[in-house]
Amino acid sequence: MTVLAVRDLTVRYAPGVDAVRGVGFDVGAGEVLGVVGESGSGKTALALAMMGLLPPDARVTGSVRLRGEELLGRSDAELSRVRGKDLAMVFQDPLSALTPVHPVGDQIAEAVRIHSGATWPAARARAVELLDLVGIPGAARRARAHPHEFSGGMRQRVMIAMAIANDPVAIVADEPTTALDVTVQAQVLDVLRAAKEATGAAIVLITHDLGVVAGFADRIMVMYAGRAVESGPVEEVYRRPRMPYTIGLLQSLPRMGVAGGARPAPIDGAPLAAVEGAPLAAVEGAPLAAVEGAGPVVASAPGGGCAFRARCPVAVDACADGDPEPALVGPARHTAACVNTEATADPDEVFPLPDPVLPPVRPPRRERPAVLEVDGLVRHHPLYRGTLFRRRAGTVHAVDGIGFDVREAETLALVGESGCGKTTALMEILRLARPQRGRVAVLGQDTAALRRSRRKALRRDVQVVFQDPFTSLDPRMRVADIIAEPLAAHGVRAPGGRVRELLDLVGLEPVHAARYPHGLSGGQRQRVGIARALALEPRLLLLDEPVAALDVSVQAGVMDLLEGLRARLGIAYLFVAHDLAVVHRIADRVAVMYMGRIVEIGSVDEVYGHPAHPYTRALLDAVPLPDPRLERRRRRVPLRGDLPDPTAPPPGCRFRSRCPRYAELGAVEARRCQEHDPMPRPMSTDRESDQWAACHHPLAEARAVL
Predict the structure, then answer these.
(1) Which residue ranges make up each domain of the chain?
(2) pTM listed for this prediction
(3) If you average pLDDT over every residue of the chain, what do you get?
(4) What are the ABC transporter domain coordinates in residue numbering (predicted)?
């Protein structure tokens, strides 16, 4: 039975600026439709149009029917009786979607009262039931807490509880797992599954993560430039994609479980701009919702024709004749909008996977000099309460005695959940100053003993690339000035030639030198950040989530760039990330952090192939695979709960409250975890192995050195 039917939906912000162009689909009861595409493809505009939440200047045409009743054209008062009751939405950022001044229980209860007329006591009791349903421990107590007292994953669960409060017939989830750790993402998806089973609602899941869609959705719709370019059953589309853009998205994914981490194929170019190839941000009068993100939308391709043809490797002359309409290309309503589907039968022919970048022959790791050495690094932050009379209320153990080294031309990745201390460790190294405790040595020089002049000189050899390329670049400076700034700071004369050289090195054109950051795509901005970091020819590059804010198609190109630079220049990378598939692709060694400690470290092949610590195993299990058949057959042990209070780490093993292995131990073995903090120890008798884990009962017991 069709619950939600969309026909020929169009969203126009200004003349010639169409965010959504003629999109249509059906979603049945209990069915999940995954909507995917690059930033700016029209996904969020589609969701807001269905909910009636677009700004007043947006013109929406077409049809949106919920159980046969038309929603478009209704007044806001009429839609308010539908929103939250029959049609609910889970927003991307739960912190901004929840009111900060009211307890979460009252906010859920308000949604119940508005649509059911229940009394406050009954509505509050229902709110507690819903919080318990979505897996929030101590639901009665946590219902009285405010949004800032919850973690990101728990706030998203509160949003889901509010969405299902009135048993809706359809739920629109707009990027509900974006910016969440893989473990929290898995928990949120489990909650959405439970909500679907409890309510029988149809779900429209908007996301850019094709791994999430592979394991959760029944059908998929791929959007490009405001149009649906391919749709069909998830397994059919993943197995036999026929639209070149869909093939490009799938081929650009980093994949785990493939020897050496298969090198993805990037999609060259960027989505077409809204007006004559100009960036959407430059279109006067375009609302902020349309401008944000790197993805411009299009009214149509210049000169007409298929909007993707400028980026398509199999484009033919017929592609310029007009925007192709979706046509049946497979069973079960598998459609694609392409005039050359005969050329898309083999994805590897459309977007061939690049050959691996072979690094120069170098001496073994132990014979190469250490670029960075960290030993017993500690960073604790005092926690104060009160305003007029401040008092110390505790200490946050952000980094609590970690140690590792990075060798020349090597990439070490720090991974773990948000709050585990990855970025804090990176920032402590970047300070090049005396740490609270422990030792940091860069190129053999102890940072605690550096004088001011020597510290400035050493900064030439240590540079950083930040996570968000837009906020890390000065919006008032042109690209050429941004790249030349570190050169001027260190007294390098005549930087013009060096700027042109750096632009070429990171794959940008000379014309980009005169642009401002807002005139670049997200991937181009990140390349500018990398060029700035390389200006002084550093020997160590600190990378803080450098591809987390980028579309998967852009990620592949940036990773190719980083991999090629390391091979050519011999730079060492300290790579902070939460995406384990990206780490598998780019890193040589990986260190897994939990609550300020490194719980496992070793080569990527050893740690991914034979994880010793249960936390590492849980992280790997939570990574979604972009293959529906593999993803749905996987057996994984879910990681329950949230990180303990960082101001009061539990005694003994800090992971035991969430450890699946601990729950199966006998009393004697469990007491060891309760009373003794595990120290790192080698996991193999092989002298060539460098895998260490801090666990009393490692998964690799047979290989452990006891």
Answers:
(1) 27-48+176-350, 93-165, 365-384+392-461+538-693, 475-537
(2) 0.86
(3) 87
(4) 4-250, 378-620
